[in-house]
Amino acid sequence: MEEKILNLLSEEYPEIDFTASDELVDDGILDSLTITGIIATLTMEFGITIPYEEIVEANFNSVAGLAKMVERLSE
Amino acid sequence: MPFLTFNSLYFLIFLLGISVLYYIMPNKLRWIVLLAASTIFYISAGIKKLPILVLTALIVFLSAKHMNIRFETAEQEADQRQLKGKERMAFLAPIKQTCRNRYLIPTIILVIAILCYCKFGADVFAFLNKNITFWTWTDIIVPLGISYYTFSSIGYLLDIYWRKAKPIHNYFKYLLCVSYFPQIVQGPIARYHKLSSEIWKEHHFDYKNICFGIQLMLYGYFKKLVVADRLALFTGQVLGNLADYEGLIILIALIFSSFQLYMDFSGCMDIVRGASQLFDVRLDKNFDHPFFSKSAAEFWRRWHITLGAWFKDYVYLPVVTSGWLAKQTNTIKEKAGREAAKKINAAIPLAVVWLLTGLWHGTGWNYIVWGIYWGVLIISATIFAKQYKKMAELLHIDTTTRGYQVFQMVRTFFIFTIGRLITAPGTLENSALALKQLFRCFNPWIFWDGTLYRIGMDYKDFCVVLLSLVLIRKISMLQQKASVREAIANRNIVLRWAIYYGAIFAIIILGIYGVGYSASDFVYANF
After folding, report:
1. Which residues of chain A are at the B interface, by a Cβ-Cβ cutoff of 8 Å?
2. Among the CATH numbers 2.130.10.120, 3.10.20.880, 1.10.150.240, 1.10.1200.10, which is that of A2-74?
3. What ipTM was assigned to the predicted interfaces of this complex?
4. pTM for this one?
5. Cα–Cα distance between B1 and A44 in angstroms, integer?
């Protein structure tokens, strides 16, 4: 799952190195517009709805965090 | 009782008295001094305004309290049953629905209804008065800072509903957060968990804090009284009599109006944050040198930061994560492809935010057009970002050079100034007239034939404004590197006090006070 998400996001945002940090939000690498794009990408790819409660830094700070969230919401 | 407006001598005396009382009282009781001060401050704006604030705060407080009790009871039961993951979510779902339907939505509707009554009421009553003979009620009470505390209250309720913050258990403590006098008039828009942690932390009298607070206030007064109110003399004259002026005079008035708004609003924020620092209560920054922004989106991350953050957390992200948008995204993906779906998905939440941002700033059509103007700019920059990048590559534009970055800053400033053309003249008809007058002639001779210096500001006023803007720009550039206040504090006593005296005398001598002194109101105090 982690690899699939990494490939998907790297293709979508080639200018961002998603492996550069485990604190993508805290380090300012992801802004709110990019987060919106990521939500749209994941929604379309996995057919999930990401509720507002899931928009926390822990879920978006790393690809691993995103993968865990997608797995949780896909169950 | 005179209104304790920030640029009055009464306010300074009031602030001094409250500061002394605050530090005389034991730490535990200091919040009561702030509550009493906030109540006096609010009453000074008109005692009739107070009941609406107190009642709104009570309704929001009780609603949040009851939601929290229901959530906590249900969560305890879920803990006892050791429910986790989806089971826990399913168990809590009916409680969430009850809280939403019984407390959250009715309370939000009520506070927005009060806001609408205050914002639209005068127009509606004027219409009724004109068309219905027996209708005589035209008196609208507009509570001080209603837009600010309404937004803060909605944020508080949603934070409790989303379980992102704990409620305040004492109504009077909550009332203090709502009415805290330095920020009630023009913000920054409070986040209760942040403000309450600042108010109820351990406070000690700290000379440096007092000093820094006063410095920030002086800087704010300089921006407001020396620059903004001086520019207001020119802009007020031109934009208030558009038919009498043309060509470059209109352009200069619009550019001055941009600087005036920034100096007025950011100056007020400096006064507010400085006054609050006297009580060792830090407030959020509302400006981060917005005229250094390279794009419209960046500008709005640096201008009125707390309003942008509020819209992001309580409108933008909830729309982004709504089931409705997810459904639309998937439908568009099936019909028009992935790229189109992504673009629509990015555009809809921004469109909602900008329409509401326009309405928040004013109820006239000019503000709705203004919201659409910014919305279109930011949406197009977002959804066509890749195309813009490709275009720059095709045209061999090196976007990393200093020259290009300066061009981007100037471009952003003019985008902002076009926005001022929509709102500053007051109505859309006046904006059209300003545009017509702007292109009516090209009259560069106004710079040397003396015309320019007979419109509210004389030659000396122009020099004061230009020198002040250069000084403020220099300070802004230094602030981006390090704390200017720290740098002043580290200087020797002679230089330090020379700077303080220089600032005080500059405000006293160069400030615009007029006959009998009645400084202009702060622009954002009307929201």
Report:
1. 32-33, 35-37, 39-41, 43-44, 47-55, 72, 75
2. 1.10.1200.10
3. 0.79
4. 0.85
5. 61
Determine, for residues A53 and B342 on separate chains, whether the beta-carbon distance falls below 8 Å: no
Q: Which residues of B touch A70 (CB under 8 A)?
A: none
The answer to whether residue B295 neighbours chain A at the CB level (below 8 Å) is no
Interval B311-345: pLDDT, tens? 988 998 888 888 888 888 888 888 888 778 888 88
Question: pLDDT-derived band of residue B515, with 50, 70 and 90 as boundaries?
Answer: very low
- Measured between CB atoms, does B312 come within 8 Å of chain A? yes
User: Closest approach of chain B CAs to the CA of A51, in angstroms?
Assistant: 5
Q: Report the length, in residues, of chain B.
A: 527
Angle at B346 between CA B345 and CA B349, to 5 degrees: 90
Per-residue pLDDT tens digits for B456-498: 888 888 998 999 999 999 888 888 777 777 778 777 778 888 8
Q: Which residue in this structure is represented by tokens 């330090």?
A: B496
Q: Mind telling me how many Å the CA of B152 is from chain A's nearest CA?
A: 19
**Higher pLDDT among residues A65 and B137, named by residue:** A65
- The whole-angstrom distance between B148's CA and the closest CA on chain A is 23
**pLDDT range class, residue B3, cuts 50, 70, 90:** low
| Nearest by Cα to B513 from B232, B214, B270 | B232
SS3 B334: helix
Residue B338 touches partner A, C-beta closer than 8 Å = yes
Q: What share of chain B is helix, strand, coil (3-state, %, to 5)?
A: 75, 0, 25
Given A32, A44, A75, which is nearest B330 (Cβ)?
A44
